[in-house]
Amino acid sequence: MLVLCQTCWLPTSLAQPTTPVPPMPPAPAASVNHNGYGEHQARWLLDSLKPDPAQRAAASATELRARLRHSLDHHPDLRAASASLDGARAATRETQAGALPQLSLDAETGRRGTAVSTLQGTPYRNWQTASVGLALRQSLYDAGSLDAQVAASTAFADGVAHRNESRRADLALRAVQANLDVARTRRLLELARTNVQAREEMVRFLEQRHTLGGGSIGDVLRARSRLSEAQGALAQALAREQASAASYAELLLEAAPAHIDFTLPPPQDLVALMRQPALAVENFAVLRSARAAVSTAEREREAVRLRERPRVELELGVQRRDMVGHQRAGTDWQAGIVLRHQFYSGGADDARATQAIARLNEATEQLHNTRLQLERSLRQTAAEDAVADDLLQSRRQGVLLAVDALRGVREQFAYRRGTLLDLLTAQDSVQNAGQAWVDAEHNRALVRWRLAYFTAELLPWVQGSAAGPTR
Question: Contact 436/394 with Cβ under 8 angstroms?
């Protein structure tokens, strides 16, 4: 009896592969999954679908709050903002000092000389002199100009304080985003690693199948091509993870911890927020800063108008002269009430008034524009949050279906009931479904943090005054 194997009857030129296949490096023993190629990735995805325990979620929120507090207390950007606020408040105190008496000292020493004057009949004189004097000035009436300047300076300092708070909220949101980005890039990095492992297991299976004569070299080459793509994606994922870790260290002033998850803020009542979105953004720091800018412009316009009115000042002075040399020392003094009023300044007063009105109009329009932008951002964020859970649920279902499809196609391919293209497509579907799931988790957390930011709830949560259960 003559028994022929599958390849022994082929010519030598056809029995050998036309393209040499370089040997693949052996994989670590820990990465070998005896349950089938891609199963480790599937199980990793299924484990990621399980929600974190409530205790772990609460601990994660506490850790994030502590890191945010440390960043807000020590970040140089906020320290610079605090220095600018100190300067603005000092400027207010400087303006207020105009209502208090102003005391000055004048002292001099040296020589004086006068030439002969035939008209006045005075001879040549040359003598050494020294004098000291005090002058006191007190504003009695300025038509309220100084009060208006103090009010404008106070409103400006309030605006700086609100801008400082806005910078704190911005930094807190950026830090939260950095935290979420690290969690996202790390999960995508692990997903890319499991994808490479699945491709390596597939290549080894196809090589063994080809060696036994049950598959073509083309299947091996196509699988190796997909493995090369997965390795390139892994390198990109590693670079993105390192970049997100660098951003985290910049914003939170420390290296990213080993475990980071998608922490959620305290829940908010979306129905109440969307019922009156204009009221929901009223406490937003940027809007309060814009209102302070309008108030500053109003006070400056009033100060410019009152500055054109007459001013009355009290002036007192005393001077002790001829304190050195052979002359007899003497004391001069003066006391008087001075009225000052400028009738014409070449149009400078009108120009200052026009500038003040223009600044007021600009600040008013900017306030209106800021309110519109905040309402728009709040509505958009609320709309994204309204569908975030449904989208996450659909991505979860997509992962489950992709894993079931991979297992089914893999079993059919093992019994030669499917093509390699079906298997590669199923593996790609698992990878894409995993990426979509991670992105959906990241987007849901980011949207809810942005919602807390736009409703001015982020900073109170960080400071611990608005703590609540996380969703």
Answer: no
Q: What is the DSSP string of 162-190?
A: HHHHHHHHHHHHHHHHHHHHHHHHHHHHH
Rounded Cα–Cα distance for residues 383 and 87 (Å): 41
Q: How far apart are the first and last CA of the chain?
A: 74
Confidence of residue 346 (pLDDT cuts 50, 70, 90): confident
**Mean pLDDT, the chain, whole residue set:** 85
In order of 39, 66, 123, 353, 442, the CA distances from 184 in angstroms are 22, 21, 95, 55, 6
Going by the DSSP 8-state scheme, the letter that residue 50 receives in this structure is S
**Which residue in this structure is represented by tokens 């080459």?**
221
At residue 120, φ and ψ (nearest 5 deg) are -95, -10
Residues in the chain: 471
pLDDT level of residue 229 (50, 70, 90 thresholds): very high
- pTM higher than 0.90: no
Distances (CA, A) of 236 to 11, 64, 186, 339: 45, 27, 12, 77
Segment 245-261, tens digit of pLDDT? 999 999 999 999 988 88
